[in-house]
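Contributing new records

If you add data, match the layout below exactly. Sequence lines come first and carry their own label; structure lines follow with theirs. Keep one chain per record. Anything else will be rejected by the validation script.
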Amino acid sequence: MKKTKVFVSDVENKKVAFLGSESGVSFGSLHQDMKTVLGDRKDLEDASLVVFTAGNLELEEKISWMKENLKEIQKGNFRGQIFIVATPVDFLTAQAEVCFPCEKGKVFGLGTAADTIYVKERLAAYFQVNPEEINAYVLGLKGKDAFIPWDQVRISGVELDTFAQMRGKFHYKEVLEEIESVVREGNVGADLITKTVGTICKAIISNSKKVFTLSSLAKGEYGVENQAISLPCLIGKDGIEFKVPLDLSPADMKRLTNQ
């Protein structure tokens, strides 16, 4: 099987990690058959996926390091994807899209993908179902402005309120409030973020066509222009293929538009 190539640009240590795997890609928790090899920026040119991360650096340092790498990549014949994990993720994703002209859907950020997985896992644990049975999204700007359109949530295809009654969970809205608080405060945990990045990388490399709430520049969706926000996106080896449309309520539409 052809080896997978993913380069992770480490902002804090200013190095590039080359990950080679026969079976897939995992960020943070590597498979046993993976090797990590240090390289330099020139190694990025033929990568299929470039992931930008960051430590506890000032924002200007993050922007400078990201732009330096993007400039280096542009010198070559880069045809891969740019995946922004560094925070503030929406701002940096917008910066990357502006300074790195490429095909549509090739630049995106982690956005609220980890938050969405957190919501699914919390709901699954509370209602005692498999997380794969949960259909839910965290939308908008990462952090205090992120929100969950609860009327869009489905569990095994059933509306949330109906499913709660079926399960005898008559006080479930208290749990929803707790979930919202964690999402707004950005406290889903580093382990879940690491796991989510790995899951997205594997989905891209394996071309498994999965949906994640990724950050990318909005081009008129829900009345938002030129602002990087998280929306459900179907992603594969060629980047974001399309954004999944949602039938949002007027109130939720306004929440997105105001961002």
